[in-house]
Amino acid sequence: MSLNERVLEQVSQWIKNDPDEATVATLTALVTKAKAGDEQAEAEVASAFAGPLTFGTAGLRAALGPGPARMNRVVVSQAAAGFAAWLKANGLESGKVLIGYDARHNSDTFARDTAEIMAAAGFEALLTRQNTPTPVVAFGIKHFGCVAAVVVTASHNPPADNGYKVYLGDGSQIIPPTDTEIAAQIAVVAASPLSSIARSDAYTIVDDELVAAYVEHTATLVSAPTSDIKWAYTPMHGVGARVVLRLVEAAGYPTPACVTAQMEPDADFPTVKFPNPEEPGAMDLLLALAKETDADIAIATDPDADRCACAVPIGGVWRRLTGDELGSLLGDDAIRRGKPGLFANSLVSSTLLRDIALANGREHRTTLTGFKWIGRIPGLAFGYEEAIGYCLDADSVPDKDGISTTLWLLRLVSELKAAGLTVEDRLNEIEAAYGIHATRQVSLRVTDLAQIPTMMAAVRANPPSVIAGEPVDVADLTNPTNGLPPTDGMEFTGASVHAVVRPSGTEPKLKCYLEARRPVPPAGADLAAERAAAETVLDALWADIKQVLGA
Q1: Active-site residue identified among 2, 12, 77, 155
Q2: Do 407 and 496 have their domain in common?
Q3: Same structural domain for residues 218 and 306?
Q4: Does 443 participate in catalysis according to the annotation?
Q5: Do 412 and 354 share a domain, yes or no?
Q6: What is the DSSP letter of 192?
Q7: For a Cys-Cys bond, which of 85, 116, 171, 408 suits 199, CB 3.0-4.6 Å?
Q8: 153-180 per-position pLDDT tens digit
Q9: Please, are residues 385 and 365 in contact by the beta-carbon 8 Å criterion?
Q10: Considering its fold, how many domains does the chain have in total?
């Protein structure tokens, strides 16, 4: 197979348009190799020009490189101009737009392009002087009175990726139909040469004011430590350290032992296979440091610091808490403190937070996956999703925030230690009071994106009526009956089992979320035996789901 004339014409036009010498050189070299018969180069060019990136509720996210299906200066400039056009069409012209960025390859360039385009479109563009955590930018929306914000980040994706996330003036990520409306404006922009997009250097650089305001506010969310605690920390080569260390000092908490090799931002993430605290091995250096320093807790923020993971000794062995374990721990703590408001988590998360809330006379909501939904719950006291995202300060940051979560965890560990307790003790208390809720997420990573709709079609065509030996109700979430908006997923609900199968919104994965529940155990029951029984059910759940998927 050789590149057809249509693709070659697209390539020619791209090279004329692209202002980035690096991507032009990459594309030129790929085409030369493809014409010489290099099948790998040919496939890469065809993939890069297979179609434009889809602008969705997560904005844009893809591998860096030339072409409309990759992240580059052309695609980002078109996205910025399209977003500006949408804002003006919706009566938000002349307002402030805050632009932040992480430390990935080209993030600063993409952010500057965005600032120039927003400024030329008549907005008061505010560009952070240096890389800044996503939740700090989200905080800045209300702090500066912005009509919108942009964060250039690929969060926890592999090093080759970058992304483009947009927020509106309420501090929340966009939801349908805003995403499709913005995408339509981007398509209009993309139909004209890139040179037709106006630019201006009349944007404002945001210095320390933003971080200082975030730290000053967030430090007030917790009380002073009540015991001496030791903790270990890593930002996983991301941008969290600068703000995390400043915040804990302002709140009066001790400086952590830090994973030196991971403290400085590094776009290549050299010490981890995937820069995601959930991935196997990603927290190995942190756990080793925690053991060495006899820490009470080990905490990791992901590369843009909007997510937080922690590990503690469980049964004498250091183990990372699952997203659901940490969610139930924080939710239970918020209820114990009498934090006013509603509690919420996504439908792919454990049902334990719901059970805790209802047992304590508190209101709970289940949402679709993503903080674009959780953060919009009015009067939210605490919200989380199992992918280690937590919101404890929705009034200021209606999004997940790994930095404030870090501080909240330190306060909790300090208070538990003062009472002679550990995180393990508190988790045991929760299970003794509300029953075992064992969860597991299994991700099927694919190299061919066509595999995902094939697997989803298979489970829709032959949904199991019994899983793990238990009858289940089947719900196709594209036609929901639970009052939630439609989404691509299948849900299976039994008396003591629950499973959701859905495509990832940000990675080439099919995700399966499994839960096995056991009732409140009698006093003095062996919790370890109860957990083991629930894990056996999870094994059976996965075996049945995997068979239906044909995985």
Answers
A1: 155
A2: no
A3: yes
A4: no
A5: yes
A6: S
A7: 116
A8: 999 999 999 999 999 999 999 999 999 9
A9: no
A10: 4
